Every structure is written in C-alpha cells, then in structure tokens.
Amino acid sequence: MSSQVRHLFSLGSRLALCAAMVRPGTALADVGTDHAYLPVWLAKQGLIRSAVAADIRQGPLDRARANIARYGVSNLVSARLSDGLDQIEPREAEDLVIAGMGGLMMIHILKRAPWLKEPARRLILQPMTKAETLRKFLADEGFFIERELAAEEDGHVYSVMQVSYSPQKRRENELFYYIGKITAETAQGRKYLQLQNRRLKRRANGLSKAGNISQANHFFSLAAQIETLLSSAPA
C-alpha cells in the first residue's frame, strides 16, 4: 500500500456512507463536489474507473482541482464547472452522487437529466433537507430506493439512499416518504426515526392549535406508526 493511501484523509460519516453505496469499478459523477473528497478517496482506493467532480461555483472547483493534483489522481478524476448535470455526459455517470444539498435542489437537478431513467444507473443521494419531498418525487417518477441508511455527523442525522429507475417496484405508502427504508436496527437509524417522529408531532400539534383536527390526527397517526417501529426494535 502506498504512503499516500495510508495517510489519505478520512471521509466524514455522510460521505463514507455515500462511498459505500458506489459500485466498484463504476464511472462516477459527483455533483456539488466541493473539495472532491469523495471521488479522490474512491480513486485512491482503486474503487472507481473514472470520476467527474462537478460544481457550479469556481471556488469549490479550484479546491477540488487542488486535491485532485495533491493526491495524484488526475488520470482518474477530472474537475468540471457544471450546473448540476448540464456539462456531464451520460457515459460519465454510471453512478451519480449528489450529497450535501437540499432535497428541492436535487429534484431540480434530476428533472433536467431524463437519461437518468435507465435501469443500469445508480443515484446516491444524501439530502440535507426535504428528504420526504425527494422520496415522493422519486416514487412519482418511477425511481426505487434500493438501500437507505442513516448517518450521524456533527450532531445531526441524515439519510443516504441508493436509487435506481425501477417503475415496477414503486412504493407509495405515505409513511415511506418520511422514513424511507431506514429502520431502527442501528443507533443512527433510531435517531433518524426519532427525529421524524418529533417533526410529525410538531406538525400535528400546530394543526391541532389551528383547529384542523382531522389533519392533526393524520400526522399523529404517522408519528404513532414510527413509535411502533421504535418500540419493536432490538435493544
């Protein structure tokens, strides 16, 4: 093992979980790459065939280029100024990572790339906000969440999902939009479910105070379903 690999930076838990969902030997596109930590790390580990590290801003792209050069992966990773996937060719994105941005922005990016609706592709998505809106969009568009796990970082808990286009596998249960495939089997999963439970209860309480009892009871019911999942989880 080379000294550069031995002394390679560690990914945070969010990006480490994203990296674990990237298929070995793939052509990767990392949208909103910032420092290009994810593609550089995967390239140094010999886990990808190629990568495009894309960002809409010049500053982050300059940092990405510096890291690509520093770790000697220019033969595998290129940095590119791109608004979402606008400057990325389909052949360059067998696996696509979008991490560290809001769910609504992700939807905006995905809508502009209809070629993502090819079953062989995989999307690895890590929304910072509006995960429930993103899950509903994915289901409505025929995408299917193959795997989903929770990651905890800096006191916050996030969802990371691996997605493919599989309209025959659509799932539209409303609770699914709030918790996806995250279970209470891990500490991070339990924290994610607890977070969603609190959010649903806050929404229900707000509706109740506004006199909308029917809608309030609906969200209280969703929260109760999460509590059932938590109570049945192994200690």
Overview of the structural elements:
- With 235 residues, this protein is of the alpha/beta class.
- The protein folds into two domains: 3-182, Rossmann fold; 189-231.
- The protein is built from nine helices and seven strands, in the order ααβαβαββαβαββααα.
- It has helices at residues 3-6, 13-21, 37-44, 58-70, 103-111, 131-140, 174-179, 187-209, 213-231, and strands spanning 26-31, 48-55, 77-81, 95-101, 122-127, 143-153, 156-165.
- Strands 3-2-1-4-5-7-6 form a seven-stranded mixed beta sheet, with helices on both faces.
- Strand 4, helix 5 (103-111) and strand 5 (122-127) form a beta-alpha-beta unit.
- The chain starts with a helix and ends with a helix.
Radius of gyration: 19 Å
**Major sheet:** 7 strands, mixed
| Total discrete domains | 2
Element order: H for helix, E for strand:
HHEHEHEEHEHEEHHH
**What is the helix tally?**
9
Beginning-to-end CA distance, first to last residue: 40 Å
**Inertia-based shape:** elongated
**Helix/strand class:** alpha/beta
Per DSSP E runs of 2 or more residues, the count of β-strands stands at 7
Q: Give the CATH class of the largest domain.
A: Alpha Beta
CATH architect. name of the largest domain: 3-Layer(aba) Sandwich
Name the descriptors.
235 residues, alpha/beta, Rossmann fold, 2 domains, seven-stranded mixed sheet, 9 helices
